[in-house]
From TrEMBL:
Residue intervals of the HTH araC/xylS-type domain: 8-106
Protein name: AraC family transcriptional regulator
Highest taxon in the source lineage: Bacteria
Leader sequence residues: none
Pfam families from the UniProt entry: GyrI-like, HTH_18
InterPro entries from the UniProt entry: AraC_E-bd, GyrI-like, Homeodomain-like_sf, HTH_AraC, HTH_AraC-typ_CS, MarA-like, Reg_factor_effector_dom_sf, Tscrpt_reg_AraC-type_HTH
Record flagged with keyword Transcription regulation: yes
Amino acid sequence: MEWLNRMKDALDYMEHHMTEPMNMDEIAKTACSSTFHFQRMFNLLTGVTVAEYIRKRRLTLAAQELAMTPARVLDVALKYGYDSPEAFAKAFRKAHGITPSAAREPGAVLKAFPRLSFHLSLKGDKEMDYRIVHREAFTVVGKKMETSCREGENLRKIPLFWQECNSNGTSDKLIELGDGVNGLLGICAEMNHEQETLTYWIAVESGVPAPDGYSSTVIPAATWAVFNSVGPMPSAIQSVWARIFQEWFPGTGYEHSGGPEFELYPPGDPSSEDYRCEIWIPVMTKS
């Protein structure tokens, strides 16, 4: 499949440039993809961010070099992108549990993060219903937080953010601001590629100014692919997110257009087995 070859090309590019500076835009270009879409696809397919993968691979290769060659720690640190021995030693200890110098000792135990590979597997035996919707720009009002995409931190912190807003009255206030129309929105907005962070909003569509303590932003006009999620939160919707990037995108002629994504939560009991909500992803046809 075309998407499989694109991801393999991107992995080849990263592997061949482990000792050189890498630009996220160039990696995505190798996969014939937008930067945003490539990062989201990679993260949901592998469970790690692109930057995290590169970091772990470099520390794996650095450990092998220290264990098997007489190269100086400083030279190895610089080779794999660290500006100082101190920064390298800190990252190395976090990854391997020992110092770079200790890696040279006979019998030293090192951890290896192997190169990833993508293989075609038979999935998609369960249909995915979706619809395409065109919407003009609209304004939302709400609360926002910044979370890291590293090691699934966002998957842990976003549900906690929802719990906080539901328990302290924020969700009720937002519903009032939105006049009860549509429901609450969970928006994945700005993504910082270098810091591996994203800004997440709990908001409502609203034309009123943001009250004190709240913020507002504009969701740009877009063509959206809309998917239904049925089941208790957050496991049900996280499962749909995974299927979208693992099955739907690779199997269709669409790719992410790079704008904000959002989840739409209508009134109801989010813990019930029949709770229905939606995922909205901005898309465009592949060039």
